[in-house]
Design a protein that fits this description.
Elements lengths: L14 H9 L18 E2 L27 H9 L3 H9 L1 H13 L1 H4 L3 E5 L5 H8 L4 E6 L3 H11 L6 E5 L11 E6 L12 H11 E8 L2 E9 L2 H7 L15 H9 L3 E3 L11 E7 L5 H5 E9 L4 E14 L24 H10 L5 E4 L11 E12 L4 E10 L7 E9 L2 E9 L1
Parallel strand pairs: 2-3, 2-5, 3-4, 5-6
Antiparallel strand pairs: 1-4, 7-9, 7-11, 8-13, 10-14, 11-12, 11-13, 14-15, 15-16
Bound molecules: S-adenosylmethionine.
S-adenosylmethionine binds next to helix 3, helix 6 and strand 3.
Length: about 425
Amino acid sequence: MYGITGYSNGYHQNQQQHSSEEKRGGGRRRRGGRRSRHRPGFRVSDHHHHHYNNDDDDDKQEQKAPPPCTDFDMAYFHSYAHVGIHEEMIKDRVRTDTYRAAIMQHQSFIEGKVVMDVGCGTGILSIFCAQAGAKRVYAVDASDIALQANEVVKANNLAEKIIVLHGRVEDVEIDEEVDVIISEWMGYMLLYESMLGSVITARDRWLKHGGLILPSNATLYMAPITHPDRYNDSIEFWRNVYGIDMSAMLQLAKQCAFEEPCVETITGENVLTWPHVVKHVDCYTIQHDELESVSTRYKFQSMMRAPLHGFAFWFDVEFSGPTNSPTNNHIPSLLTGASNNNHIDGIQKKKRANPNEALVLSTAPEDPPTHWQQTLIYFYDPIEVEQDQIIEGSLTLSQSKENRRFMNIHLEYSSGGRSYVKESVMR
Ligand SMILES: C[S@@+](CC[C@H](N)C(=O)[O-])C[C@H]1O[C@@H](n2cnc3c(N)ncnc32)[C@H](O)[C@@H]1O
């Protein structure tokens, strides 16, 4: 998932990604967006068995007023009206196949039950749930893509089962509780885009006790990386351009290339140490205020001598059932080292060692690539590290006050006796 328009550092390491973004106009790093009129809570489908009512309902349990739909939110939803975004997500087979497999894995729970698809997009996950035997699916999306979702549902003769609601999950009303919530809410660095808050809202408004949330938990990781090819390509290049010394360009090149986080694909070979768990999210228990700011301290020990160019971030999500609903201590012991410095092999083992055989959708460098790629925060200047050298510091990710869908990143790092601070914004 992505969002927000008009902002980008424009760099894409992955050419395929680059061209698909150009296709969407403007070489954007993320799914672009422009202004749209937002009409909260009207229903696209015409389902006769369930009364849809957007008026105040005295019988409803007391709820806090939903957060206002800002201009930024409207731009965000408008970005999802573009076909290219949905095409890219659906063509991401790792993503879409894992969701479908997870739905089928939980088929016995879903059969005959009521499902809510938070942010249904084209309706693909709602249709998978209907195919798995759901009695009824509420497919909610605030973007105009809901209009197409409704057509897709009708064309597949599922209008009696899937009710498309065109509105924010914060604003729509339904008159029953749901057994299952499914959503593909993950942004770059997991939390960028802030859609998880809408899943929390849906959970607190409608999920039955003992209900199922797919995915059930998520983990964000970070690790130091070396990437000489990337650094040489963007920076060192200026030292000798057709025999001309263009070093005067270096400062500008560093700023333009590395001021903002970059979304690129790296491999396990770029990663210098075991990853560190930045945040584990239990979708059954996470609260809104936990998402406003996430902080962690980390300490790595480089496994090789190399120039340290920055940090990579990636995430995975797990599709566990409700009975073994995980807790915040749920990270398998294979993954929890004393200092949270987890070995990459541990992640691979995690999939095999998972006692519940829960499916995992991973965006790790050593796993098959997804449209999320990895998120890289580069330093302006590399640090030469020796084998076993300590790299330590802290990280704070916080929702921007200006636009909660943007993410402020405060990174402190020190190694070899020198300390640095890097502030950046993901927008
Ligand atoms: C990443 S897309 C996923 C689309 C689809 N579920 C899929 O997997 O292909 C997220 C969708 O959620 C919608 N969305 C985000 N926040 C929402 C909210 N608060 N209420 C309703 N829809 C929302 C967006 O408009 C977008 O279409």
